[in-house]
What does this fold into?
Amino acid sequence: MITFKDSFLKATLPVTSKLSDTTFRLPILGFVLLWMGFHMWSLYYYFQLDWLTALWDSVIFNVCLTSAAVVTGYFINYSSRTGGFQFTAGVSLLLAFIVEWISRQALTALMQDNVAYLGLLDKSVPIRWVISFLLIASSGLINIFYNRWKESQEAYEREAATQVMVREAELQKLQLQLQPHFLFNSLNSINALIITQPDRAGTMVQQLSDFLRATLKRADEKWITLKQELDYLQLYLSIEKVRFGHRLDVRMHLDEQIELWLMPPLLLQPLVENAIKFGLYGTTGQVMINLFTQREGDSLLIEISNPFDQDVQPAEGSGFGLNGLKRRLYLLYARNDLLTTRVEENNFIVRLILPEKYD
It folds into this structure.
């Protein structure tokens, strides 16, 4: 179940992933400068202090206050998460006393000849302490929430990275999971030809070697062109034609204008293998398999059809072919409607739709 937290993190991840500690503290620095200006202005306007006295009061008091806020942040970063708010309150209480005492001592020494200002300074001690406590505690709370937000963000990023790795591993597994019966049948055919037709057996061994080499090469590629996929399919068909001879007739109706269409590798071979398996089963005559491609809007349409007689079909198969392809397509495109099948006039038709890939 997707929670509100997961949705919010996913929506804000592109922005927050670029948020560094320095960027986070820039608004705080801006607030400190605004506060110093307001502090100086209020002393000048409301308490009728001269500009120089108001400036020194604002600078010394707020430098001490900012230093205390920074110290609070370091304490919070290296303290335990347990009791973080109570810890922040205690540290802020202590540092507020220290800020008020240090700033008062510095201002007293600097303004020792200004009796009127020193009297105002003594009267403002409680107010200065309250202001110090509130600002230091606020800084600490901001650090706590920011740190916890970063932890949530990093945890989400780790989870997302893990999901990507799992997805890639599953895709690679599905991509390499060829029908084992094809390899076994090819080896059996080679074994049968070694004595009777050794030349054809040698040719088939070379073709099988080229096919397996191409399979391993395609496994490292995420996207290939339709032309490359069809070249790979021809390697597979050259082996099957040695096995079935004149019985296998595969006709391709291709649109040359879409030869450079990008698609995931190793999609067509399992579909054609499925068509050969069920088209030739229980028959002794020639069987025609048709492969048709064309562009439909922003998608590539591929249809593969083979003769289909339900009464003479194998009782069961490995179950991997179509199901494995559907799973791959879902992992790549997040859609369950890209691979469909239908029976039409004793023909079994597989319809594959591949959306256009944009770089």
